[in-house]
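<given_protein>
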Amino acid sequence: MTVVSIREMTPFIGKSDLAKSRIMRAAGVMSRHGADVKVTTVVAGDGAGDIHIYGSYSSFETAAETFQNFSQDAEMLAIQQERELNPAADVRGPWLGRMLYGTPPSSPKPISVQRDYHMPRTNLSAVMELAPELDKLMDPLGVDVAVGVPIMGSDHEMMRVIYRFSSMGHWGKSVDSMVENKEFSALVEKANSYGTLRTSRMIATI
């Protein structure tokens, strides 16, 4: 099982560099205490310009212990104090989720596309039966696929489908193939009978 924490930041105008510096420091603290951390920027779509911190953990117990430890770290406390005195971004989260399908890739890929669906929980089992089919279609393109749902957050009828790419060029080439693939289109149409696509975004690792 993979547990994921997500923190989202919208930098204030004129303070983007300060916000990014603090975010990278915070990510370093999290990593030192055992979190598998990725910092990204939203380059297109919903929340373009935002910065995200993703922490991955092997279990909820590990996530809780790691959170407790890095929250008490002297440097993290200093960052929080700096933020109180001189805010540089609107900070949201952490949200918590778990992966229903797929795991963080063994060789991290710098570009990801997230597609967030309104998915009633009663439809989750049915739609998850489509995940191996999607994975099979994406494998020849070298695209990793994962599916996650929230555990603590504002919307518990959200399901996130994640596509991972090795580069921006890889994304473009893959999408060209995907839109022309009738099997992929049919699979997407079937998924749409269970839920509704609400938002999407492209993120790039910093």
Remarks:
- The two ends are 26 Å apart (CA to CA).
- The first helix runs from residue 16 to 32.
- Strands lie at 3-11, 36-45, 51-57, 89-101, 111-118, 144-152, 158-165, 196-205.
